[in-house]
Design goal:
The chain is an alpha+beta fold. It is built from eight helices and 19 strands. Strand 6 and strand 7 form a beta hairpin. It is globular. It starts with about 25 loop residues before the first strand and ends with a strand.
Amino acid sequence: MKKSDFDFDLPPELIAQAPLAERSASRLLLLDAVAGRREDRMFRELPGLLRPGDLLVFNDTRVLPARLYGRKDTGGAVEILIERVTGAHEAVVQLGVSKKPKEGGRIELADGSHAVVLGRDESFFRLRFEAPEPLEKLLLKLGEMPLPPYIDRQADAGDMERYQTVFAREPGAVAAPTAGLHFDEPLLAGLRERGVAFGYITLHVGAGTFQPVRAENIGEHHMHREWLNVGASLVEQIRRTRAAGGRVFAVGTTVVRALESATVEGELHPFAGETQIFIFPGYRITSIDGLITNFHLPQSTLLMLVSALAGREFMLDAYRHAVEQRYRFFSYGDAMLILPRGT
């Protein structure tokens, strides 16, 4: 398949630039891929769309304030965007700079500490941060929330809370698992009252999630690496849910990627490590029964993933409907609920 097979027209004004006042006030496009049915709903209606005994699987990663600013020894300004933290003082990063630094080059940060260039990793750089505190603490002191490139403004104090899920607890991501941003405490309480259970994976979303597919033949695309953990307790929770007739819903494409990475010959196993899994039409997703997700960029790997779940033509038609109905797109936008077979 070609990346152009996953294109659609999106008016720029539909790209949400800020969150709504209430997390659960977003709209929800309900999709039944088998029946070819769709309904325009509200996200706070979610408890009534699920059944007692269903399981929602969330990504509990916590977004780091991963954007830093500094200067090279020559005085040139540098923007550092952490891609992955690889050690207490080391990271793989993207650098915004007029002239790329060489190995051994130094970048001075706002507090007077330095980052040293260790080398290149394709389009990324490896840096060592020469600071007394671990990198995560340095980011909390100096970093800015790394809003996606399609949000055309500087991050502000409100983003420190809103570009973070209410259940975030494992620091390490540099982009939010955005489907989870719609959940607030009242909605979670309503789901519990409905008899819906919660489970958690951790997948630290990297800045590479925003990298475009450059190969026209999507089979030639290479995914970025991301670290994940699917624990034994969740594997058992999913097994019990299905044995009792419940359904497993992934909250976000990161959960799908984590569970599929932990699936071997159709069976889910505990797994901790890195993944580069690329899911596109032709791939059969077996680890979930349904998906809650935001709307994705044209020609993106995430649009390809949901097309593998529900069919490319059905999903592109749903996206055209969303544009016509003026849904809000991307990280701070609205959501979809893709229902499983037979619902």
